[in-house]
């Protein structure tokens, strides 16, 4: 079986479709029993405990009481979706045995992702060459598409990939991985067809991986799938590469898909400049067989440890790209409860333990140097499948990697030797209280090391000055047989500081101090009532990253600074009612992503996207059916290398159709106040601060 567990072991899919169709090739780790704790809890409580529990319940209810008052679409008409005939009592949680067959749709329905639209950049001009890299139908497990790759006979410095997927029948969503030369460059997910012919087209600028496309290598596309008499969908994938030559490439920098003005006013920074594709890309997870996907799965308290390569003396920057997404029991990690409440509503309730915090940690020779949380990805079968037709969730077609600057490791990698880089996925609280809960099974991980060189550097020396980290976290909770309230918070911070001295070709010496700071923090509030039939989740993740380069002899003499902030607010609300033969499930979601990029104290990019939706499902013995309404708003402001602009888009969907789609584009925008206010409001969505939860902002 393939290393990646894809979607079959997802708890949400088990709730929606029943048991996993594909047995896992690993044993499920048994959770620690909490029966003794529960027995102790049943003993009479003293007066102080009574006061504490009452305070806890009131605090949590107060923090969540307006979840149901979000500005969500209403007046649903649950008549569009018809489902499978099997029905069983749903487990608690934000899901149902939702319908998997979408009826009355027109042939060939396009499924879209609302995202940054200018890919490729207009500055690239016309494509010089188009090459078909993948053309395959995926109907099996563990058989990726493999092909030899040869670069085109044209001069190019930019590469844009376009993925075409079409599928019909009934099928899960599936996770896809693209590897070039053994390095993962794109992680994506497929659409659920729901009985209709659906297709998607999505482009990704992979120019930072240009070095992989400049040499003979291979292309591997992994999309594990299982086809049965009932689950008949076979995704057909066509992947094209377009090659461009951008004569102005040295004047811009990439942030995701966006070209921004990253020019530094200090001429000393040019030796550390990363406004270009990486000079070398090292896939850190390797397989002897090029047809075996070079990824691994991190579970429990596992730590992935990899030998680091030696780099050339003219290498001046190092970055890690970490592809990590929770799958199987970890797909909906942000809804997990503390271990002691896993069976609070019964052993078959469907609640998963290990808590709702997930932080990706990076270690160098055993010392932590970076910590970042991950976006709570939602695939097209997640939470409620009808949410995501015809608009998928944020980043569903292009799951971004976690990018970490590790230039401070250069002094040791210049010299070589036996040095390792390690990765784990932490539940946050174990690092605070010394526990060993770990995480569940299923963090699919791929890692690349990107190096940036400068031709004017002939020699380099340095030393690591400081490695430091700090962890804070806490949980407050109270649960009985009919209700559960828990508040969990965690903050993990890391710092790496090094002295970097460059000998230049002109005979001069440049002595600097490089510092990288990272912080991953999460606030998560959950409430379950009516034995878990009513559930509310307020989850806010936030990442902050900084890279600072200063004069070694005068640290106040700053050469360059980059600050990145990402916020991931997510609010889910579910209410389940039913009898032995019929169940109704109301689900609402507010899902957002806010990003800012500042260079030398100047904002050069800010973006915000929010999805606001409601869904109704009716589970019946003769077939399940339901419907959803969604509004997606996207806004981005950019200070670009040639122009400043603002782009906005709003898309409404109802009954599986797009009912409203409006775009607005404006150049020469210099006032950042509107989008800054929007991002501040999104970042403030936090169930533990300031009482009532704010609504999703409406001024986009």
Automatic annotation (TrEMBL):
<keyword id="KW-0472">Membrane</keyword>
<dbReference type="InterPro" id="IPR021102">
    <property type="entry name" value="PNGase_A"/>
</dbReference>
<dbReference type="InterPro" id="IPR056948">
    <property type="entry name" value="PNGaseA_N"/>
</dbReference>
<keyword id="KW-0812">Transmembrane</keyword>
<keyword id="KW-1133">Transmembrane helix</keyword>
<feature type="domain" description="Peptide N-acetyl-beta-D-glucosaminyl asparaginase amidase A N-terminal">
    <location>
        <begin position="117"/>
        <end position="467"/>
    </location>
</feature>
<dbReference type="Pfam" id="PF12222">
    <property type="entry name" value="PNGaseA"/>
</dbReference>
<feature type="transmembrane region" description="Helical">
    <location>
        <begin position="45"/>
        <end position="65"/>
    </location>
</feature>
<protein>
    <recommendedName>
        <fullName>Peptide N-acetyl-beta-D-glucosaminyl asparaginase amidase A N-terminal domain-containing protein</fullName>
    </recommendedName>
</protein>
């Amino acid at each position: 079986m393939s290393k990646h567990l894809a979607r079959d072991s997802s708890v949400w899919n088990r709730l929606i479709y029943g048991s996993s169709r594909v047995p896992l090739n690993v044993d499920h780790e048994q959770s620690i029993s909490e029966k003794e704790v529960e027995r102790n809890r049943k003993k009479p409580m003293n007066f102080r405990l009574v006061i504490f529990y009452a305070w806890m319940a009131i605090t949590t209810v107060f923090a969540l009481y307006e979840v149901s008052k979000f500005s969500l679409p209403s007046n649903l008409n649950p008549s569009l979706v018809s489902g499978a005939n099997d029905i069983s009592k749903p487990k608690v949680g934000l899901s149902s045995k939702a319908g998997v067959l979408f009826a009355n749709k027109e042939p060939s329905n396009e499924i879209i992702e609302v995202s940054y639209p200018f890919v490729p950049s207009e500055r690239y001009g016309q494509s010089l060459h188009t090459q078909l890299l993948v053309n395959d139908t995926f109907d099996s497990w563990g058989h990726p598409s493999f092909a030899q790759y040869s670069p085109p006979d044209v001069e190019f410095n930019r590469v844009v990939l376009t993925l075409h997927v079409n599928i019909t029948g009934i099928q899960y969503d599936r996770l896809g991985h693209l590897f070039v030369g053994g390095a993962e460059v794109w992680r994506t997910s497929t659409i659920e067809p729901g009985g209709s012919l659906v297709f998607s087209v999505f482009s990704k600028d992979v120019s930072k991986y240009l070095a992989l496309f400049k040499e003979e290598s291979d292309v591997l596309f992994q999309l594990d799938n299982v086809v049965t008499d009932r689950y008949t969908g076979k995704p057909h994938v066509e992947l094209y590469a377009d090659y461009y030559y951008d004569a102005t490439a040295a004047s811009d920098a990439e942030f995701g898909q966006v070209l921004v003005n990253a020019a530094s006013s200090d001429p000393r920074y040019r030796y550390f400049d990363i406004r270009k594709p990486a000079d070398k890309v090292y896939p850190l997870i390797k397989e002897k067989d090029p047809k075996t996907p070079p990824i691994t799965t991190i579970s429990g308290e596992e730590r992935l440890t990899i030998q680091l390569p030696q780099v050339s003396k003219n290498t001046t920057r190092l970055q890690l790209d970490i592809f990590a997404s929770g799958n199987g029991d970890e797909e909906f990690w942000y809804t997990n409860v503390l271990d002691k409440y896993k069976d609070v509503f019964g052993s078959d309730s469907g609640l998963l333990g290990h808590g709702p915090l997930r932080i990706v940690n990076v270690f160098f020779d055993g010392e932590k140097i970076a910590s970042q949380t991950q976006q709570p990805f939602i695939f097209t079968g997640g939470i409620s499948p009808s949410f995501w037709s015809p608009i998928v969730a944020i980043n569903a077609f292009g799951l971004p990697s976690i990018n970490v600057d590790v230039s401070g490791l250069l002094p040791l990698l210049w010299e070589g030797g036996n040095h390792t880089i390690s990765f784990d996925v932490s539940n946050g609280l174990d690092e605070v209280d010394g526990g060993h809960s770990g995480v569940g099974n299923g963090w699919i991980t791929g890692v690349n090391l990107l190096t940036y060189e400068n031709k004017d550097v002939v020699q380099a020396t340095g030393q690591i000055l400081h490695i430091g980290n700090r962890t804070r976290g806490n949980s407050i909770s109270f649960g009985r047989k009919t209700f559960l309230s828990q508040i969990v918070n965690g903050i993990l911070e890391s710092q790496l500081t090094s002295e970097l001295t460059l000998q230049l070709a002109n005979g001069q010496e440049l002595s600097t101090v490089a510092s990288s700071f990272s912080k991953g923090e999460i606030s998560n509030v959950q409430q379950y009532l009516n034995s878990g039939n009513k559930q509310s989740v307020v989850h806010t993740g936030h990442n902050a990253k900084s890279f600072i380069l200063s004069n070694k002899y005068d640290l106040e003499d700053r050469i360059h600074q980059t600050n990145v902030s990402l916020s991931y607010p997510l609010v889910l609300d579910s209410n389940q009612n039913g009898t032995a033969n019929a169940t109704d499930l109301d689900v609402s979601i507010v899902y957002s992503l806010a990003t800012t990029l500042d260079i030398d104290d100047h904002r050069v990019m800010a973006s915000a996207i929010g999805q606001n939706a409601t869904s109704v499902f009716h589970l019946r013995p003769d077939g399940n059916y339901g419907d959803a309404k969604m509004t997606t708003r996207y806004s981005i402001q950019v200070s670009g290398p040639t122009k400043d602009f603002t782009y906005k888009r709003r898309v409404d969907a109802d009954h599986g159709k797009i009912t409203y789609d409006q775009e607005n584009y404006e150049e020469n925008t210099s006032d950042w106040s509107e989008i800054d206010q929007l991002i501040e409001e999104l970042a403030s969505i936090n169930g533990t601060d300031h009482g009532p939860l704010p609504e999703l902002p409406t001024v986009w």
